[in-house]
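Readers outside the structure-tokenisation community will struggle with the description of the input data as it stands. What matters is that the chain and its backbone geometry are given together, residue for residue. For illustration, here is how one protein appears when written out as sequence plus structure tokens:

…
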Amino acid sequence: MMAGAAQFSSKSPVEALAFIDAYRWWLTCDCSFHQTADGGAGVDRHFVRSVGAVYAVNRTIPAKHDLDPENPYQKGKNRGQPRKVRDPSDPHAAALAAAVASFDIRQGETLGDRAKRLARLIDENAAAGKINASPISAMTKLLWFAKPDGWTMFDQYAALAVMAEHASSTAFMKNFYTVLDRRGFTRLVDNVRGALRHPFHPLLAERVIDKFLFIHGVRYSRAGKATADQDSAFESSRMEMALLNGFVNALPSDLRQQAIDQSFAIAETVSLSALLDPKVAA
């Protein structure tokens, strides 16, 4: 084993694991997405699809297809019928991009109030037929890249960590952010940011909290499952640790030690457990 090699395990402080995973994603894609988004100016349908592919939310942004009578099927049961071809304008993705770009960040607004405005924007676009009714997680992710300060992503596992349940509705999303607000999300973001040292980007603070919630949500979803599922969960956990350790160990030696030290500095100075539902924290 190389000198100073990372040896994170499932028993490591979750805050430390969250930092390492946040940093891994930052170097892999999040920094690029954030720079490309350019405060919303760079958010277009191509950007939406790129983020959707990496974050596995494209399924909630349906592509529009038209019939092409000049290009019929040549074989099979559909022979002679016009093929479905994808609309290159990708109107659902374009509408989502326009909604994100138009969303303004208001000084002094609470996390819960911002979520209410976002929910209203999603519902209005869905009612107008511009987007389908379920790109809620996608919208929160796109918004983070465009306007990340004091924001975090909403998805199944973050919701499980905070609420011990999950639903894909704007009403549930609003409640999720309201509860985070009540449990001190903004203060804890500031605490994590205060613990970050050069060369780590200040925006990692929000992502550390997202990853903290994600890890707890995944673990909660696996708890109490049948033995076969537990075996599968153990193997998944083992490989997750292998990915984290492999990432850290691939860093140049000086940066590797800085990342390890930073992860434990956060774990030692900031506790994020107040964000968790009591059933998850138990």
